[in-house]
Amino acid sequence: MDKLATDMSNLANTIARSLSEYLGDPSTRCITKSCSKSTSFLRLNHYPNCPFSEETFGLVPHTDSSYLTIVHPDKVGKLQLKINDSKWVSVRPKPGALIVNIGDLFQAWSNDVYKSVEHRVMTHSGADRHSIVYFLCPSYDSLIGSCTGHSPIYRSFTFGEFRKEVDKDVKQLGCKVGLPRFHL
Q1: Is 149:138 a contact under the CB 8 Å cutoff?
Q2: The Fe2OG dioxygenase domain covers which part of the protein (predicted)?
Q3: Residue ranges per domain, the chain?
Q4: How far apart are alpha carbons 28 and 155 in whole angstroms?
Q5: What is the distance between the terminal CA atoms of the chain, rounded to a whole angstrom?
Q6: Class of residue 179 by CB neighbours under 10 A (exposed 0-12, middle 13-18, buried 19+)
Q7: Which of 12, 30, 127, 181 is deepest in the core (most CB within 10 A)?
Q8: Which residue ranges in the chain fall short of pLDDT 50?
Q9: What pLDDT, on a 0 to 100 scale, did the predictor assign at position 26?
Q10: How many Å apart are CA 140 and CA 35, to the nearest integer?
């Protein structure tokens, strides 16, 4: 597990640096400097089969509260992405392929150049689903602000402040509000 977490961390940091360089950010390491093994994490997911309905959520629609998320899916699939703010499309798993999602923090940091994708997991009536997921996250006191040099869309905030708002929203509203809470 340690080797897998290290490999996923190295891959996530490489992708984050590449995406940052594309934006022309002179401090492309600011994302990766704020992330470490102690703040990022690996999650093993198990979604039991559901004999009742394949319209049952294994995981409700949401965006990730990370910079990047790397998913190693199994062959069952059932991960769906929301496109054009209305249509859900299934991601077909390919052997040996990984899925990379932009998270809320990268969206804020890039000033909406990159978008955090809303996604969900549906159940399967005939098979359990498993996935390995790595979340690239900063420390709770890391400041998240726009890197683009253009007028920021979001006010600067810490990851801890963001997580606190997400937790509060889930308790009070039953769902995550996320980035809209931080619009200027």
Answers
A1: no
A2: 37-138
A3: 2-139
A4: 20
A5: 41
A6: buried
A7: 12
A8: none
A9: 54
A10: 10
Class assignment of domain 2-139?
mainly beta
Residue 56 amino acid letter: T
Helix H or strand E segment including 9: helix 2-22
For residue 153, count CB atoms less than 10 angstroms from its CB and return exposed for 0-12, middle for 13-18, buried for 19 or more: middle
As given in the structure block, the two tokens for residue 90 are 């299934």
Determine the Cα–Cα distance for residues 20 and 106; give it in Å rounded to an integer: 9
Tokens at 125, concatenated? 């009536």
Question: Strand runs (DSSP E) across the chain, as ranges?
Answer: 41-47, 57-62, 68-73, 79-83, 87-90, 99-102, 119-122, 129-136, 143-144, 157-158
- Which of 184, 100, 92 is closest to 145 using CA atoms? 184
Distance between CA 50 and CA 125 in Å, rounded? 5
pLDDT of amino acid 76: 80
Q: How long, in residues, is the chain?
A: 184
pLDDT value, residue 54: 62
